[in-house]
Structures are given as C-alpha cells and as structure tokens.
Amino acid sequence: MHVARTLPELVDHCTRLRERRAALALVPTMGALHAGHRALVDAAVRTGAAAVTSIFVNPLQFAPTEDLSRYPRDEAGDLATLDACGCDLVWMPDVATMYPPGGATAVDPAGPAERWEGTHRPGHFRGMATVVAKLFGQVRPDVAFFGEKDWQQLQVVTRMVADLHLPLRIAGVPTVREADGLALSSRNRFLSEAERRLAPNLYKALAQAARAIASRGKSAEPLQAAHAALSADGFGIDYLALVDGPTLEPIAAARPDARLIAAARLGTVRLLDNVPVD
Questions:
Q1: What's the rounded Cα separation, in Å, for the pair 199 and 8?
Q2: What is the pLDDT of residues 244-260, one digit of tens each?
Q3: What are 184-197's pLDDT values in tens digits?
Q4: Closest CA to 172 of 91, 264, 277, 245
Q5: 178 falls within a domain
Q6: 105 and 56 Cβ atoms separated by less than 8 Å
Q7: In sequence order, what DSSP letters do the residues of 244-255 get, joined into one string?
Q8: Domain check: are 103 and 199 in the same one?
Q9: What angle do CA 164, 8, 34 make, to 5 degrees?
Q10: Under DSSP, is residue 168 helix (H, G, I), strand (E, B) or coil?
Q11: How far apart are CA 82 and CA 42, in angstroms?
Q12: For the chain, what is the mean pLDDT?
C-alpha cells in the first residue's frame, strides 16, 4: 500500500495503478476509520479496481459553531486498517494542497441539499460538494463509494455527478450497525456510557415507524409516535421525516424509494440515521 501526500505523488501512483488495474475506485473519508469505512473499502476492493482511499478532515464542512479540532484523528490506526483491507493507495493531502491561496471556485449544490442537513448545518453541503469534486478531479476514479448512513450526502453527490456530467459512477453501501442497531459513526466515541445505552433507540424508533408507515400507508401518526418516544428518552430532535429517497422532498405516505430520515442529539453528540420504507 502506498501513501501519497502531494499531488505529484498522487498522480504518479494513480497512473501506475491504472496501467496495472485499468480502473480506480475511490473511497473519500475524513479518517477515524471504523467498520463502516471498512465496508466501503471492501466494496471498492471487490470491484477488482485499484482501491484508493482519501483521508482529509475538510474544514469547509464545519460551521463556526462546530469544533473542527475535536474531530477524531488516528493516522497510524487508519493506515493499518486500510493496509489490512487491501487498499492500494491512500491520499492524505493537507489543507494548503486542497485549498491553495487564491482559490475562487466552489460547488454550491441545491436540490437534495436544500433541506434537513442543509438547513441545520448551513454551508455544510457546499463544503462537502467542493472537496468531493476536488477529490474526483485529483484521483479521476471510475467509481466512488459512499455510505448510506449519510443518506442525504449520498444523494447530493449523486446529483452533482449527474448535473456536472462527471465521468464516474457513485455507489452506495448499506449502513453498518452495532449489534444493538446503532449506526457506526466516528463521533460515537464521544457518547457517555449512559448516552451509549440510549443511542440505539434512534434506530429502533425509525424501524418501528417505517414498519407502521409501510402497513398503514400514511406517515403522520407513526412519525408523531417516534418523535414522542425519542423525546421521552432525552433526544433533542433536529428532524424526523419521511422523504422521497433521491430528492429528499418530504412526502406524506409510503411509496417506492421512500426513506425515513432523522437527526437527533444526545448530549454533545449529533446522531444521523435513516431506514427505507418498503
């Protein structure tokens, strides 16, 4: 496994890998890797393409009220994990490489970026789409893998690639969960013991509501029940909604591609989750 920290190194390694393997598969990450990230890298490796993983904590994704310095970092552990997964190349740029002085262009997504996380974290998707577009331009992958746990992000990237006619395919990978249902996240390590015991209730409430919506068709009562149950458990709910999966538009009843999405806070930790409504 090679590690590139400068653009010339990245270009050289990508050229060599493409000569040997014909295709490149990219997994963009911010590090602090867990089993969810490993599932993404495993999916990339299974394609037979050369697997490239980027590690970059993107400052543009953090609002002024969010603590960039608190985001977990573990370079040695991440590199060991990626090596064990069969990753071929790790791209680890610094901020000056990604955002050189004089830069004047950004990607400002609309459509699926306009609600939910777009409302609660202004500028987040602008920062995410900008850095992802830069990674696509630097690595030139044939396919890129994103987790379904961040469902809205997956749809924003998919829309961006289609709208800008970028020559790659976006592949979603199902959410990886703990045995009790909690969706894996790098931020879970900040949960207290008591909060960690409560955290799986977010998934339980979503799953129960999804079943009720699927059987009844309408969403109002199941969503009210889920909201009440989570509030009683001490969750601060930013949103809990039934949406059209690709567009993130709110809908009132079950239909193909419907998705139940939620963001809720426990203490200082903000949890995101989503489930399909079959």
A1: 44
A2: 999 999 999 999 999 99
A3: 999 999 999 999 99
A4: 245
A5: no
A6: no
A7: ETTT--B-SB--
A8: no
A9: 70
A10: coil
A11: 10
A12: 96
From the list 37, 124, 165, 227, the catalytic residue is 37
Structure tokens at 123: 């500028």
- First CA to last CA across the chain, in angstroms? 41
- 127 and 25 belong to one structural domain: yes
Q: Are residues 110 and 227 in the same domain?
A: no
Give how far the C-alpha of residue 192 lies from the chain's centroid of Cα atoms, to the nearest Å.
23
Whole-angstrom Cα distance, residue 108 to residue 56?
A: 20
Is 258 in a helix, a strand, or coil?
strand
Paired tokens of 153:
């992000």
**C-beta of residue 276 within 8 angstroms of C-beta of residue 259:** yes
Alpha-carbon distance of 46 to 59, in angstroms, equals 31
Rounded Cα distance between 93 and 7, Å, is 8
Element (H, E) at 41: helix 35-46
Q: Full-prediction pTM beyond 0.90?
A: yes
Last residue of a domain, one of 150, 173, 196: 173
Q: Is 37 a catalytic residue?
A: yes
DSSP β-bridge partners for residue 263: 239, 272
Structure tokens at 178: 């703990």
